[in-house]
Amino acid sequence: EPLAAELAAEPTAAEAVAPVELKPGENPDLVRPAARRPGKVVGFVDLSKVQTTAAPKRPDSRRLRSKDDVTPNVLPTLGHDKKRALVRGDTGSRGQMTASQLKEQANARFLRNNKRGPTPMGGAPVRQQRGRPTDVSASPMSGGEVVLAAPITVKKLAEGMSIKTTQLLAKAMQQNLGLLNINSILDDDTAGLIAMEFGVTLVIEQEVQAETELVAAFVKHRTEVEESELIVRAPSIAILGHVDHGKTTLIDRIRSSKIAAGESGGITQHIGAYQVTTKSGHALTILDTPGHEAFTAMRARGADAVDIVVLVVAADDGVMPATVEALSHARAAKKKVVVALNKSDKPGANPQRVREQLSKEGLIPEEWGGDTAMLEISALTGKNVDELLERVFLESEVLELKAHAKGPASGLVLEAEVEKGLGRVAHLIVKDGTLNTGDVILAGEGFGRVRMILDDRGQKIETAGPSMPVRVTGLDELPSVGDSFYVVAKLDQAREVAEERRKKNRQMSMAERKQTTTENILQALADQSKKTINVVLRSDVQGSLQALEAQIKGLTHAEVDVKLLSSGLGTVTENDVNLAATSGGTVLAFRVSTDAKARDAAERQGIEIRPYDVIYELLDDLRVMMEGTLSPEMTQQITGHIEVRALFKSSKFGTIAGSHVIDGSVTRDSRVRVLRKGKLVLETTIAGLRREKDDVKEVREGFDCGVTLKDFDLYELGDVLEAYKIVPVKRKLGKS
Question: What angle separates helix 247-255 from helix 385-399, to the nearest 10 degrees?
């Protein structure tokens, strides 16, 4: 009874209202708690005695199933993925979630993201701290001056202006300076331009190097020499002029030698230097330079290395392009010019006409009131050659050429080569001082102790004084043609300067390397369709090698290029052949031999080694090789003319033109133009060609024939059929 009475008791008003939990986002004013209705206990049920029966299952084959009907097999993460599981809202992997769970997860993520703020186009919210454009206008150093030591890299310049490298690179892109990186070396102009864009004045501080100190000390020592210790030195002369105008023949006459007879193709292939003594006892140093157009740089170096220029002009040929070019080199070097009118004794020679031509170039003869000596000579017979030399010596006296014979030697590099039996050989002209065997010499990137000195006739000597042309051995590297050379006191000093020069040249090479731009990329893609001729080049001397490299680079065409795989001095080696074999190339040997291993390798691999003694023959062969790769030009070649003299009707062939071959011939595969009173009616092809009742392949001049044309039968008497064929014609490099 107490229990029944307790259960039957009605709850109070407070107890009748059950507490309600609010869901996220619900307004408590709009949610009212549901009142609990009072009830009565009417009895008890023993659940253990109640039997339940399950509803029959439908067969799986007839039941439509979806992923939502399958309870996911959620596996425990063992604690290693709790963080990601909480973010996902489950305790398993994403691949084990149902479609409903994935949708709920996406909705929850969307709601979380929306709490960060509005998003553009309904996407994920933008993180404002990222993706901002790079500020390329601000620099703490703006309006100031920055001093940096060369060489200048992108990183060094950015640090000097107190900006980020990304800002500098962005500005470089805006200025179309190419694709740079933080280690890119900038030349002085580019670095200054970028600094100006940031409002900074860049001052480039050139480091005082060992080379600068060496040259300064050398010049100081030379200026301190007393005038009484100086001697008059022999003048150095450059013989310049057009090819085949007789320069080398003139030197032969002066030296009483036969140089010209031994030259390949009758032209000089590199600079030659000789010392001679005139009949009056005056010493002269003569430089013979090539006259061929390929040796422009050589002629420029020859003019720069001498005191006086002798311009040789053939009286029967007159002023030629190389003559004008040689004159421009002499003027650029500010050298005195003496003109030798050679071949003046030949029939057809006209020295007066040559004087007029030279006067138009600014050389006024002395007899016309000018200041240029012009002598009529004959190098072949010796006419007035002695007078020419005396005149050159008189001009040198006006220049007051002097040297300090007792001082350390200095001068210029005329040529450099690798000579069999001697190794690296440098051709020098001593401008001042005396060069001795055993001296420490510095020339370009090379240095070493002089082991041997050879004069212009190949004789071994111990010393070489001012104005003497010599060949020396002992350098560790070949210098470049035109480099200055100095004799220094210590080997370590020469090594330090040489290493500085090598480092500087490498840096300059990197700075001059072509930057990657959009235009470069497009050009490279266009060049992929070009055909390429790969060559390996070997030469005897550096001057010829440089001339050949410049000429080969100039051989360009829209459809084919010549690629120089490698170039160097000395004998053709097996490595040269192997390099050519990797790309199907050709080895070009200019005035050098081929060793036995290279010949065997070339024969084994099918590589052609082409030897040359004359530069223009090598260049002509390269042009022929390039022309051989060009696609032929298709042209029309007229083979004959036919006159229509009768018309015949045929049920099988239609209208047949009874014709007569006026000239040439006509074949069944000919194309024809139908000409009526000189005007073009139609262009078509021959459908049938018959003589009497026989089909024929060709009908020649003077014979009659029957002709039918494709898609045409409106012949008229007197029509002319012009037969032609399309033939390929080999193209020349002049036509791109």
Answer: 90
